[in-house]
Structure formats: structure tokens, C-alpha cells
Amino acid sequence: MIPLELVDIFACLQLPESRQDGLKALAAYTRSKEAYLFGKDEELGIFLPARGLPQTMRHAARWHAIFEQCEARACVRAQLPGPADGEEIDSFVVADKLRLSMLVLLGGEPEPAVVMQLHALLPLIGAKLTVERTAESAAGHAAAARDASRQARSLNLALDANRRELHKAFEQLEKELAVRREAERKLRETDQKKDEFLAMLAHELRNPLAPITMAAQLIKLPSAGQRQVEQASQIIGRQVAHMTSLLDDLLDVSRVTRGRIVLEKEAVDTKAVIADAIEQSRSLVQLKQHQLNVRLTGEAVYIEGDKTRLVQIVANILINAAKYTPVQGIIDLRLDAAPEEVFITVSDNGIGIEADVLPHIFELFTQAPRGPDRAHGGLGIGLALVKSLVELHGGTISAQSQGSNSGSEFTVKLPRYKHSLDASIRSRENQEAASEETLAILVVDDNVDAASTLATFAEALGHRVLTAYSAKEAAERAASQRFDVIFLDIGLPDMDGYKLAKKIRGLKLCESSVLVALTGYGQPQDRKMAHEAGFDVHLTKPADFSRLMRVLNDSAASRRGAGE
Predict the structure, then answer these.
(1) 162 exposed, middle or buried (CB, 10 Å; 0-12, 13-18, 19+)?
(2) Tens of pLDDT along 19-59?
(3) In terms of residue numbers, what domain contains 392?
(4) 42 and 9, same structural domain?
(5) Which residue(s) pair with 293 in the sheet?
(6) Is 69 contained in some domain?
(7) Whether residue 251 sits in one domain with residue 286
């Protein structure tokens, strides 16, 4: 495609009165010191300066020799005399395909793409210069004039052809400009969505900090009684869970968009999924005094998937319905089954979805309009995440609404699991039996609060737990007694967790221990490094309790199997 700037320059070169300005512009465009234009005089058989330009040139013989080379090769590089006496300058000479004009770029060599553009446009100039020369000769040479007329007709045909090519180029340029304008529009929309999202994220993360701070101050008061401490603890727990949910959604969206999410598939009871999702959304439903109606199919319905993610799908839809339904609203959840598919439908009598928003409801950062109070909360990523997770399970999700204040309905369709359930059921029975096993656990973390919290969690499940706050202390404990599971923080002050894991893995007592990496970094390269260091499991902080339970249950099941 030929740039409009170059087309404008060649338009100047068409007229004798604007040629000098055009050549200056062309020199700047090609990054040359100066530009010269020559046309061929057919009578003399040599190239002469174009009309409107100085008609004398120093060392003419050398210039004509270079022009002869260029006629044979279309373009040449050569040393030519500069404006100053004795000055020699590297130059680039281009001839048009009809060899009617020569363009000399003194002190510069254009890029290959520019050379191609010059070759495309030069025939127009060559034709114009020939016509000018022919017209000059016509005054005194009638025969030459008739010949020039014939040439002019031929050249006009070439000119028309080139004009058509230019027209096509302009049309293509218009199309590309339209595409660019559309891309710029989408970029502006995306940028606006990004700014709105960052503002929402800041708002959503600041909101829980106020009650957390107040609750922490309340606990410190000497006059705080047991009831106040319990209330403060509940407040902190709820707000931390809210912040963790926001961060988990952000991380999940990032993993999904980069194709990094991994499903741990098994045969899952759909009714159990719905029960867990209702439990997760219960606090918001109760807070807004909604009536939740649940209708389940009478038969057992199984789907193959990751139970945690399936619960996340249904819970997010329920929470979305609760957020956008006014107080004391009605939410209906229905489970239907067909031979090949399972349908989970959530409908409400809430604010509904506007017709212009509905087609984009599953896109990132899409939300219904809301006021400065941001009463509905959220980041506009929940439904986009739900759609991605549903598709990872081989299903689809759809949304329906009759518009403002008409409620909405979301339907998730998933493939029904039709294979034998015996193996999956046995696996769950083994896990339930394993959960009753007592494990010896070592928790290693220089953050005392983090270590104590994890240790308390494991002890509450009936396991024996020791803690260590440095790599040195951890190595000493691991060398003195056997542990079934060792949780290692990666960022220890005296030795990083990778080196410590290699050291512990080399101890005879810890050959069969399950090493679990605890870290704030969850990129693929972090998991690879953990695996290479000898870790069996990689958990990203803050570790999900259900994931911790799974690690402990799997470890107990493995020990139980080894014992049998």
C-alpha cells in the first residue's frame, strides 16, 4: 500500500511550479540530503533535468554514465558530485519501468519498501515529463509533435492504468482506515472498562478493610468481653472470606484466559453440588431475606467434573441472583435431567437485564449500570468466569430476561455422566475413611500467625502437629522424627523452601513424607521449580481449606494403603 504522504509528494512533482517543493519533501521522506528529477529527451537520447528545476549540472558526463547503468538495472548505488567542489556523496538512483524518468537521492538509500513505492509511482512522473518534452518540441517540429501525440496516447493509457492502481490503493487505504478506527474504538472501550474495573476493585478491596480494622481494634480493648471478641472474630472471618473470594476470582479468570486451569474430574453428584452452592450463598440470601425455592429431580444425577469448580459455577449464579434481586425477592433453583444432559436453572424476580447488556452479559467486566454507591458490588468477572468453567466441563450457559425489573434466568447445561459409578464411589469412601487417620504433620513458616493458623486447623482435624519458624529448626525436627506431611513456606529467611525441600528429601526419615509447597506465587514456572525440588503438592497462599483437606485425606489414604 502506498502512503498518502508519498502520493501527495508525487502530486507536487506532476507540476513544474511545485516540483522543487515536492523534491524537498521527497528528500525528507526518504531521509536523503537532496533529491533530483530527470526526464528523458527522446531526440537527444539523454536524461535532462525536469522543467521547473535548474537545467545545469556539474560533471554531466558522470551523471549520464550513471543514468545508463540505471537504465539497464532499474536502480543503482553510486558516488556522485555533491553541491560543494570536490565533494563526493553516496547516492541512490531509481528509474521508472518505462525508463522515461530518473530519480536521484543524494546522500541516502531508502528502505526496500520505499523503493517499491517509488517504482510504482515513477511511471506517472515519467509520462508527465515525456508529455512536457514532447509539447516543447512540437512548437518547431510538426513530425515530432505527431510522434509525441502517439506516445502521449500510449502514455495516457499507462497513466490511466496507474491512475486505476492508485484508485484501488486509495480504496484499500480507506478500508484499512475504517478497520483502524474500529480497533481504536474498541481500544478506547477496553481502556474505559479497565479504568472502571480498577475503580471497582479498589472499592471492593477497601470496603472489607474498615470492619476488619475496627474488629481488630475491638479485640485489643481491655474491656472487650468474650461476646465482643467472638463477634469481632466472625466479622474478620466474613470479610477475609469476601476478599479471598475476590482474589480467587481474579486468579481464576487469569488462569482460564491463559489456559492454565486444570480440572480434577470425577463422577460428581449434582445434588451435592447444589447443596454446597446453596451453603456458600446462604449468608447473602438470608441477609437480603430472599425466598429460595429449590426443586430437584427425583433420580440420582451425576456429572463428570471438578466438584469444587462445579460448586463455584452454581454458587456464583446464585450469588449473582441474590445481589441483583431486591430485598425479600424470590429465587428459584431447578435441577432437570435428560438421558444425555443435566440442566441447572436459576431464575429470579430481580432487576433484570437490559436488552443492550444481555448479549455481553458473559464478557469480562460487564455489569448492569449502577450508581455511585455501588450497591450490588462485584467486579464484573463472575459470569465470565462461570461461562469459561462451564465450557471447560463441555457444557453451555445461557441467560434470558425480558428487560428492566423483569427478572432473569440462567441455565447451565452439562453432559450427564453415564459410566459406572462404582470406582468413584469407592474412591470417596476411601477418602472418608482416610479422613479419620491421625497424621504427624510439620508446619514450617517464618510468619508465626500463618504457621499457627495452619497448625490449629490440622489439630482440629485430629492430627499431631509441630511448627518450625526457620529452615534450621525445620531441618532439625525432620532429622529427629518421621512426619507424614510437611508444609514448607518457600520464602524462609535463612534458606529458601526449594533448597530446604531437597535437604529434607535426602533425610532417611522423610523419604516417604508428602512435601507441600506454600507460596504466594502460582505461575507454571513456580510449580515446575517446586516439582524439581521434590515437592509433591504446590499450594498458592492463602490455601483453600477444601484443598488442604484433600491433601491430608490423600496422604492418610496413601499411608493406609501402604499399611495394608
Answers:
(1) middle
(2) 999 999 999 999 999 999 999 888 788 888 988 888 777 77
(3) 266-415
(4) yes
(5) 332
(6) yes
(7) no
